[in-house]
């Protein structure tokens, strides 16, 4: 009889698989999911009769323990082999746009041989779906890839599992928490039309946004309540503004501004010359417009700038622990260069292009506590 030798990680995978089969009374074939499409009910653990909370959450923890002590090359090789054994795919729920999510998925599969299936929607919808599926015991997600503030209530509902990786050591300070890891961020910045705003005329500080010279020449986005909250904090704690002075500041800013919903539409109005400045543009989108020859700029920016972090986390009920850990590892390793090539601001230390700029991440815990209040306050201020 031919002997079969299993590595400790292969043995662990076999034990987890046998436990899942025992829980559901034997093997069962599930319908295939479509790459790039939202997983359906037939793809969920509940539909196959498995008990993911017991089998899969422990699977991630045991897998991470078994990976300790391996080199990154050994870790990657073992994860790929196990991920293929567990179906060769990972379900990622994300708010990334279709183009970026698609290119990331193609690169991930090319590097690992494991397919990335996606459910893509606005971050709020992704958060709601994961919470609802978790409450129903029918979660199809393996990894959640959205803004870190949206992950807070998912964690609080005990729907995430801790993740650690040697690749986390290569990220900028503040990127790692117990349950999620930041992989990129969206930087809020003031942008201007270079045909309408002479060099040196652009705002040099947040206080300059209240200058009457921008009356009728400035557009604002009425949904950027986290930007509004961050500037309040800056004016209060860094500049020593009183609450009355902050109220007057915003009144002066609002009096000279017009509001347009959507960053994309605001960018287009800026490019077309309808406005001279856009107060809370995303730096990445302005860079992409510059590549296409648009007369817009955001550099040099003034410090600090505020950033909304985007993070990834493993869903506790995953039945694909190896694929989930593999995707998380790849996203903060090779995936960082893929995102950089797409003009995304990443968190890997050696890929930082704004070394002299003070970037303040919007704290997810603090924002989660004040979100509803700040949205209502900003909407009242902007007439939204």
Question: Could you please describe the fold and organization of this structure?
Answer:
Strands 1, 2, 3, 4, 5, 6, 7, 8, 9, 10, 11 and 12 form a twelve-stranded mixed sheet that branches. α5 (98-112) links the parallel β1 and β2. This protein has helices at residues 8-24, 45-48, 52-67, 72-85, 98-112, 123-136, 148-156, 225-237, 243-255, 263-272, 283-291, 321-331, 334-341, 364-382; strands at residues 89-94, 115-120, 143-147, 160-161, 180-193, 218-220, 257-259, 277-282, 296-297, 305-315, 345-346, 359-361. α4 crosses α12, α6 (123-136) runs parallel beside α7 (148-156) and α7 crosses α14 (364-382). The chain has 14 helices and twelve strands. With 384 residues, it is an alpha/beta fold. It has two domains: 16-23 and 36-184 and 309-351, 3-Layer(aba) Sandwich (D-Maltodextrin-Binding Protein, domain 2), CATH 3.40.190; 186-308 and 358-382, Periplasmic binding protein-like II (D-Maltodextrin-Binding Protein, domain 2, 3-Layer(aba) Sandwich), CATH 3.40.190.10. The protein starts with 7 loop residues before the first helix and ends with a helix.
Search tags:
384 residues, alpha/beta, D-Maltodextrin-Binding Protein, domain 2, 2 domains, twelve-stranded mixed sheet, 14 helices, elongated
């Amino acid at each position: 009889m031919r002997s079969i030798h299993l590595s400790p990680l292969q043995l662990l995978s076999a034990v987890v698989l046998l436990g899942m089969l025992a829980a559901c009374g034997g093997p069962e074939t599930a319908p295939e999911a479509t790459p790039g499409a939202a997983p359906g009910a037939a793809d969920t653990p509940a539909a196959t009769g498995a008990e993911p909370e017991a089998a899969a959450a422990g699977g991630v923890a045991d897998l991470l323990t078994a990976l300790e002590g391996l080199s990154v090359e050994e870790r990657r090789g073992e994860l790929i082999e196990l991920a293929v054994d567990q179906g060769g795919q990972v379900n990622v729920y994300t708010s990334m746009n279709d183009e970026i999510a698609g290119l990331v998925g193609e690169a991930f599969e090319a590097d690992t041989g494991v397919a990335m299936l996606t459910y893509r929607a606005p971050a709020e919808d992704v958060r709601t779906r994961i919470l609802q599926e978790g409450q129903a015991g029918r979660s199809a997600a393996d990894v959640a890839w959205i803004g870190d503030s949206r992950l807070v209530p998912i964690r609080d509902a005990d729907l995430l599992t801790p993740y650690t990786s040697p690749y986390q050591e290569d990220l900028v300070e503040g990127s790692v928490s117990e349950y999620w890891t930041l992989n990129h961020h969206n930087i809020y910045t003031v942008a201007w039309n270079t045909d309408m705003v002479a060099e040196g005329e652009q705002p040099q500080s947040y206080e300059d946004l209240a200058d009457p010279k921008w009356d009728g020449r400035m557009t604002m986005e009425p949904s950027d309540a986290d930007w509004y909250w961050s500037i309040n904090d800056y004016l209060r704690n860094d500049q020593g503004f009183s609450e009355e002075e902050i109220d007057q500041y915003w009144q002066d800013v609002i009096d000279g501004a017009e509001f347009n919903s959507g960053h994309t539409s605001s960018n287009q109005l800026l490019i077309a010359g309808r406005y001279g400045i856009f107060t809370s543009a995303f730096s990445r989108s302005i860079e992409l417009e510059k590549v296409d020859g648009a007369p817009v700029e955001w550099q040099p920016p003034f410090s600090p700038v505020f950033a909304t972090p985007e993070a990834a986390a493993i869903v506790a009920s995953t039945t694909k622990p190896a694929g989930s850990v593999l995707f998380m590892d790849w996203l903060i390793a090779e995936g960082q260069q893929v995102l950089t090539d797409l003009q995304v601001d990443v968190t890997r230390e050696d890929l930082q292009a704004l070394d002299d700029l003070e970037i303040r991440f919007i704290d997810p815990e603090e924002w989660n506590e004040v979100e509803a209040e700040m949205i209502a306050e900003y909407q009242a201020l902007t007439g939204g």
